[in-house]
């Protein structure tokens, strides 16, 4: 019977089960995430090489004029050393790790989840999926607040393939797209986009893309050639956040 159970477990029948339980479900990028992973043995003893927890999100990439949605692991954490889980045995493993700084905010279409798996030789790896909420950190909160105070309305948030210059750092970036419904920029831009590139816990590079509105034949020609788009790059520390609104006003006004 033991041999028969091993054969069944190798195709996922009567296999060990895994369940990750988190101490919380809401975080910010860089936060410590902790909890326990519970393993329940199946119909036979099995050798578990490792328990791994991956942080996943999705992003869109474009190829051949088509858009594709890709799942990407932005962090991987190994919980334990190899062990044996006996038939019907239960084991509990605590874990903790810091979420990476580039963990996107769960706004718009963006989703973030933990995928827990068991690496079991000659068997289908069992898994567990846990959705988590990621709130804006200090940099993003300051950026969103400053944009709102300048009359910019958040229209869309999504993750896109990173520009070529940044693909050595990350596969994707999160874009916050605004429209100027009021304030000093009303009627002057089609849209404004913010992207935050993290340089460390206390420093971020804010990329701002401004798309000017078409005015006349010359502007229409510029738009056709994508010449109506301008890019602003700001390096910010936490001490800059209190004056971010005035910085944005000054920089973006240059392109009106």
From TrEMBL:
<dbReference type="InterPro" id="IPR009776">
    <property type="entry name" value="Spore_0_M"/>
</dbReference>
<protein>
    <submittedName>
        <fullName>Sporulation protein</fullName>
    </submittedName>
</protein>
<dbReference type="Pfam" id="PF07070">
    <property type="entry name" value="Spo0M"/>
</dbReference>
<dbReference type="InterPro" id="IPR014756">
    <property type="entry name" value="Ig_E-set"/>
</dbReference>
């Amino acid at each position: 019977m033991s041999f028969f159970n091993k054969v069944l477990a190798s195709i996922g029948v009567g296999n060990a089960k895994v369940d990750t339980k988190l101490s919380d479900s809401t975080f910010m990028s860089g936060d410590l995430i902790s909890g326990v992973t519970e393993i329940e043995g199946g119909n036979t003893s099995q050798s578990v090489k490792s328990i791994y927890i991956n942080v996943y999100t999705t992003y869109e990439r474009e190829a051949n004029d088509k858009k594709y949605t890709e799942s990407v692991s932005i962090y991987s954490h190994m919980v334990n050393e190899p062990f044996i889980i006996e038939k019907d045995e239960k084991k509990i493993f605590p874990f903790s790790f810091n979420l990476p700084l580039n963990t996107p905010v769960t706004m718009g279409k963006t989703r973030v989840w933990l995928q827990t798996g068991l690496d079991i030789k000659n068997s289908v790896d069992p898994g567990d999926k846990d959705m988590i909420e990621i709130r804006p950190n200090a940099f993003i909160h300051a950026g969103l607040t400053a944009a709102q105070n300048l009359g910019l309305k958040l229209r869309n948030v999504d993750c896109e393939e990173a520009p070529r210059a940044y693909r050595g750092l990350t596969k994707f970036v999160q874009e916050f797209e605004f429209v100027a419904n009021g304030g000093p920029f009303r009627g002057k831009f089609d849209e404004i986009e913010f992207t935050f590139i993290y340089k460390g816990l206390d420093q971020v590079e804010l990329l701002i893309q401004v798309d000017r509105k078409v005015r006349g034949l010359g502007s229409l020609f510029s738009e056709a050639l994508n010449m109506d788009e301008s890019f602003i790059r700001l390096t910010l520390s936490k001490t800059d956040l209190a004056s971010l609104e005035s910085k944005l006003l000054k920089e973006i006004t240059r392109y009106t």
